[in-house]
Amino acid sequence: MASSFGETLRVSVFGESHGTAIGAVADGLPAGETVDEAILLDFMQRRQGGKNELSTARKEPDVPRFLSGLTDGRTNGFPLCIEIENTNTRSGDYKNLADIPRPSHADYTAYVKWNGQADLRGGGHFSGRLTAPLCAVGGVALQILARRGIAVGAHLYSVGQTEDTPFPMLPDPGLFDKIAAKKFPVINDEAGAAMQREILAAREALDSVGGTVECVITGLPAGLGDPMFDGIENRMARALFGIPAVKGLEFGGGFALSAMRGSRANDPFTVDENGVITTETNHSGGVQGGITNGMPLRFRVGFKPTPSIAQMQRSVSISEKINAALEIRGRHDPCIVQRAVPVVEAVAALVTLDVLLSDGRFGELGTVAV
Amino acid sequence: MASSFGETLRVSVFGESHGTAIGAVADGLPAGETVDEAILLDFMQRRQGGKNELSTARKEPDVPRFLSGLTDGRTNGFPLCIEIENTNTRSGDYKNLADIPRPSHADYTAYVKWNGQADLRGGGHFSGRLTAPLCAVGGVALQILARRGIAVGAHLYSVGQTEDTPFPMLPDPGLFDKIAAKKFPVINDEAGAAMQREILAAREALDSVGGTVECVITGLPAGLGDPMFDGIENRMARALFGIPAVKGLEFGGGFALSAMRGSRANDPFTVDENGVITTETNHSGGVQGGITNGMPLRFRVGFKPTPSIAQMQRSVSISEKINAALEIRGRHDPCIVQRAVPVVEAVAALVTLDVLLSDGRFGELGTVAV
Amino acid sequence: MASSFGETLRVSVFGESHGTAIGAVADGLPAGETVDEAILLDFMQRRQGGKNELSTARKEPDVPRFLSGLTDGRTNGFPLCIEIENTNTRSGDYKNLADIPRPSHADYTAYVKWNGQADLRGGGHFSGRLTAPLCAVGGVALQILARRGIAVGAHLYSVGQTEDTPFPMLPDPGLFDKIAAKKFPVINDEAGAAMQREILAAREALDSVGGTVECVITGLPAGLGDPMFDGIENRMARALFGIPAVKGLEFGGGFALSAMRGSRANDPFTVDENGVITTETNHSGGVQGGITNGMPLRFRVGFKPTPSIAQMQRSVSISEKINAALEIRGRHDPCIVQRAVPVVEAVAALVTLDVLLSDGRFGELGTVAV
Amino acid sequence: MASSFGETLRVSVFGESHGTAIGAVADGLPAGETVDEAILLDFMQRRQGGKNELSTARKEPDVPRFLSGLTDGRTNGFPLCIEIENTNTRSGDYKNLADIPRPSHADYTAYVKWNGQADLRGGGHFSGRLTAPLCAVGGVALQILARRGIAVGAHLYSVGQTEDTPFPMLPDPGLFDKIAAKKFPVINDEAGAAMQREILAAREALDSVGGTVECVITGLPAGLGDPMFDGIENRMARALFGIPAVKGLEFGGGFALSAMRGSRANDPFTVDENGVITTETNHSGGVQGGITNGMPLRFRVGFKPTPSIAQMQRSVSISEKINAALEIRGRHDPCIVQRAVPVVEAVAALVTLDVLLSDGRFGELGTVAV
Asked: Which structural domain range is residue A49 located in?
């Protein structure tokens, strides 16, 4: 077992880049929830490649097909299976990878683990393409959460050395919509333009570049999550490290807190005229002891640069046990982080819904018009 | 369910700071493994407080008592239960916490979650004291791994703004022993002295300070772990975020990779004269696609500053819904990160052993003299 | 989460009787295993309806389509997804079920659980049709086990009051093949003829009849399974009660042992000239303390009669809260137990493979020609 | 992992018969629940041996000690750990078992599984003594359920060939109390007297005898449990087969349904004047499709005879690979089924509470005076 996560809501992802189809099963969704397919397609479109010179040329329509779990446009309580056919595959591009592993890809580790039996064309099951079904089921979760006043938003926080403006402490969901509508998902478009220049420069250098995504979840009730190993941070962490290329994760102030004193890092409590308890700052990222405190849940995910680059690289021939140069042709994104923004939202939404369901708190959330 | 982790080897932690006892059950350990109690006590001693002015004055002997799972000094295949009695508790110190939550502690979130029914004296089940049983069962795992040539080592990477020398790319287990024998677990003792000054300065300011721990695991076979959500990174992440005060985690180059280009971040493969495939650098931290590549597994954990500080802080009275000043007396560490070093090792050892057992790879490891 | 089982090999079933498709994902299969599709179709054919007057008239081709996990006819280490399209649905037959629940069906319990939001046309996700994907992935497991000398066989042990000859203590896999090749899966064809008469008599009376299935697994190594709650009996039980209409399960002598004395029920050990330890009898069904002893694993599963019968039945109108008569038209099997025989084999094979993988014992099994 | 069960409420059992202590951790209990220790001791007393000539002479006080999870007599939201010290052990009795396995015990299977490293004195972790901590945490669950109007009752349904009167379709909790207060837990005391004669006759013949336990849970809401593999039947089955010596389990009519026609086996629905929907009969045992229907949950558990008998038995010497006679001295119950009655109740209560918590239905249950 490997490609699933969640306790009460369990998501299983299947498929290989160059197989028949990719997809996901989400078991444990609440019943009677409307799925707006147009909104879902819009959401999925955000991670799609092929739009411009920043992304790979591969163009798959990526239309999700609901095999089960949906009746007359509403969840029916049973496992939701979404399938996406693979239509545009040119596996010839990857032929010599079988023996010469791409540096910092899973080629070599998968080779060892499965004794050469894994199907790694196009990255196989490790391909970034597998994030499409994650977005499909995550998009359903986002709609269910939105109806309860819970909003999940993310933006490209940095590309290489260039940083966007961080989210404000109490972001308005309207800001999330605004970012989602942009071609390049940043808050500050000037920073965005600089990031795009950084990506294009990397591309011209036959190189790639990494980046980070900041994500915030608003509208969460306090008291969600369990202590120690089943906290909302633990569950987010387990799922988020499943997104390809993620190498770092921090909640709230994160690593910056490690360099601070307690008097600055602590979030003082305060109560407003309605008796609502909040904190003056949110260095904790909305979580203390693994449990939400009612402030926005906030975390940042670090992605390494796309390991597929067009430059000649040093590798080895596994069969011949000799050093070997590798030149990858195929189609590659010089940066995948802008496309990972909705993927982070999707995973965050699925984990959030799972924690709400595990805690038995989902039913008590009122619904709001969306 | 909350206070347990692991799949094949399942660790369950129990106890509250001021209850009768704390402890842990480890179910799924291999049978016939010698447990050297002297070595175990030495290991546990490393996380113990009360040693000097850097740590809290609370002195608990913290002698583990084996209730089950051990026969004639060897694991017997059945669940290992280790209990540590609580002997030195002064709960009066924490009396007013019931109503006025300590900033950035779990007091408030636990209050909301359990409607005021949680026993939070001394931090309750959230107390750093609960890391003692983690070290007890983790210490057993460390001995089992050492016998298979797998070494787990960690050091204090930073305190506040001061940084230690990082681990070399291929650290020798002898280095781990050297660090473990030090009063202050750093590689570079000059950096260590500066860190201690930073801790004492915080203490004098009635304040606290955060830090980071770097951990490396050597001797792991390649091919360990599963793709997507069950990789060794995912499983480490789930468990490591269960250590109190952890707010960040990065593998290999981590967040620094996000600022790099692929040509620099990628780890070129190379093969030596014996046909052994390694990588020239280890920015991946020994993991690609969630699966080990045979290089040392390397990660860094960020701890926020101890939230308990002696300064007056702003908080609220939960019952009266008014703002309230809070002055915490009790006993507090100005920095807990030096004590967290063996805790990180313990958790890393438990997760490593679990992944080895899940993969059915444990049996194939030869034993070495230790 | 509901429709999945297994620890290391995790099977997730999806689909509703009258939805787009039904299917299953099997995550954790060993890589490099050949899947013979002709053999698989033969196996699946055994549970198919529409063959004769004993079964429902519904004829679905039930051809499995591999969406993932298979490359060039071999498992590739990644999740195997099998989909079966629903082509022959006449949901009008079930229209009035929405309000008047069929006695001893899940209509009412599903109505309550999902507040009327479940899609129960044709039984929805509770339909016996969902056993088709179970057979598809179970058929793959059977092929993998057969290659290791592990055979799973079952027969119709009883229908109503009529009983077949039980399996011998040490059945030959050839016997399993012989039964599998029969139109009516019994050992003793005379008993089989009597059973068929009992089924037809029930049908003529607009009624249905229950039965039992006996299953045996040969070739298992001793020492498989874990104590207490993770024994092979526990894991079998969890999965087998997931087959629709199962209401009883007994291992070895089962309930009959409860009426015996220990001196008769105990299985004496004996050792043969090759030093192989076996037991003289197998009242334990091959399991002691949840762990296999090397004798055939043997169990019996009890199925209640098909709850859909053509007779008028007493029910209620949920909406009007009044008693209401119900006459079910549609297509129904007067007995489903003969069709459940391969389903029991499929589930038994999946659990067996999962236990082998969890115990890290799979790799040590040699392969045999099949 | 082996000795734990449950999803939201996770119970882990530890200890060996002749180790330092036995115990259990229950993680996930609701907070604020009063634990009446006198009632708990009374409940635990019901499974205690040493009372009379029907049971073993071993007398352990079996007083549970709460190590954690309880503050001022109420659950505090954190893992509840209960420990019972082992005080009366005479392991010499079992010395020769190490090499000559007792027929139908786990001696041999444990030997193979752990290569002779398991501690099997007194049955080790497989001993019936491990049911004491199950009763301790199960007794806590029973108190929590009782407060919500959910009652769990069981009686000795049969010993050897002698049967008690079955529970009525709608048993009153008062009946459960009456049975619990009896020295011999039956409904019909005449049948009970006959059973006791059967047990004593077995004892005089240096033999043992098996039996069955019937259990009923009243007051459950309809709609509890999940389809397929996560139904309340599946979860009960997984846990109940963890009680030593259980070899059979049937829900409602169970195996008898397999011999019936549908027209007799189906439970017709009916609605009363208050609009409450029930069934006229309860052959389904309160469950359809894995989900409760609001009728009492009813099941029967079959226990094999105590495998330890004083007669000479045929076994083998594992080391010498020769046949060997075995005479077990030690202390043994000629029948353990009467002592298993509260164990079945304990496990049933824990599973029921777990399912209620998993479904998020616990909070909606009102409390009643008990």
From this structure: 4-364
Backbone angles phi, psi at A289, to 5 degrees: 65, 25
The answer to whether B229 faces chain C, any CB pair under 8 Å, is: no
Threshold 0.95, pTM exceeds = yes
Which 3 state secondary structure label does DSSP give B353? helix
D135 vs A164: CA distance, rounded Å: 58
Which helix (H) or strand (E) segment is C179 a member of? helix C173-181
B7 vs C contacts (CB less than 8 Å): 7
**pLDDT at residue number C121:** 83
What's the CA gap between B207 and B103, in Å, rounded? Answer: 13
Pick the closest to residue B78 from B36, B14, B31 (CA basis): B31
Q: How far apart are CA D75 and CA A245, in angstroms?
A: 43
Instruction: Give the CATH number, domain containing residue A271.
Output: 3.60.150.10
Identify whether the C-beta of residue A299 lies closer than 8 Å to the C-beta of residue A215: yes
| pLDDT exceeds 60 at position B19 | yes
Domains contained in chain C, number: 1
**Overall residue count recorded for chain B in this entry:** 370
Q: Which residue is listed with tokens 């393409």?
A: A129
Q: Residues A20, A132: contact at Cβ < 8 Å?
A: no
Distances (CA, A) of A266 to A225, B128, B245, B306, B308: 21, 17, 12, 9, 9
Q: Extract the runs of DSSP E, i.e. beta strands, from chain C.
A: 4-5, 10-15, 21-27, 65-68, 70-71, 74-75, 80-85, 151-159, 162-163, 211-218, 246-251, 269-271, 277-279, 287-288, 291-292, 297-303, 313-317, 322-326
The answer to the question of residue D273 being in a domain is yes
Query: Residue C328: pLDDT above 90?
Result: no
Q: Specify if A369 maps to a domain.
A: no
How do beta strands A211-218 and A246-251 pair?
unpaired
Beta bridge partners, D35, equal none
Q: Is residue D116 one of the residues assigned to a domain? A: yes
- Pick from C228, C257, C336 the residue to mutate for testing the D interface (most D CBs within 10 Å): C228
Q: CA–CA separation, B149 vs B146, rounded Å? A: 5
Give the three-class secondary structure for B34: strand
Q: Is A270 exposed, middle or buried (0-12, 13-18, 19+ CB in 10 A)?
A: middle
Nearest Cα neighbor of C224 from C165, C130, C296, C151 is: C296
Average of pLDDT values for A128-144?
Answer: 97
Interface probe, candidates A9, A157, A249, A266, chain B, greatest B C-beta count within 10 A? A266
> Does residue A233 fall inside a structural domain?
yes
ipTM, two decimals:
0.96
Q: Which of C223, B41, C327, C175 is nearest to D318 (CA)?
A: C223
